[in-house]
Every structure is written in structure tokens, then in C-alpha cells.
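quick one before i forget lol
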Amino acid sequence: MSENQEHPIDRLISWSKWMITLSFASGVGCVVIMKTAEETARQRIGAIFFLAILFFCLAVMCSALFIFRVSASKTITAEMPVPHLWLTKLQLAFFAAGLLFVLVWVAMLSWPA
């Protein structure tokens, strides 16, 4: 493998770092909206935002666990299958679920009270 080519594991680690950033920022955004919402709005969106925050936190934990597990591996060669690939799929699924709950909240904004 040439010096300019990046190992697939390094790409997955970079992706996981981006997922941590996106999930953390999304979760913090949900918390800020919950804190600044009026009491009636907070009661209406509380469960939706709680689930969104929960899934964003789970995405962060999966990403961090993936980075830790891969970094702890002794040797990784190009022939070796990617270890813990299921964690990358799980982190994407958790992020997508959190995003889905945020989109449900956006849809609820147009619903009558």
C-alpha cells in the first residue's frame, strides 16, 4: 500500500470521530431547545426530544467504543477483516434514529395544539 493511500480502518476511525461531533452537537442542540421552550411546548415535545437525545448519546458511545476497540488492537493488516464493523453500523443507526425523532418534532410544529 502506498503512503498516499489511507487504510480503511483509518477512514472508519475518521468517520467515527465525525459521528461523535455530529451526534454531540445534535444532542446539545436538542437540550438547548428543551431548556428554552415554554412549559406547554416542553410537555408536548419532551418525550420526542428525550428519545432524540438518547439516540444521539448512544451514537456517541458506539463511536467512542469503536475507536477504542480498534485502537486497542495490536496489529491490523490489509487482509484482516475490519474488526467491530457492526459498531459502525450501529452508530449510524442510532444517529439516524435520533435524526428521525428531530424530524418528527419538526413535523409536530405544524400540528395544532
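fyi The helical segments are 8-36, 39-72, 85-108.
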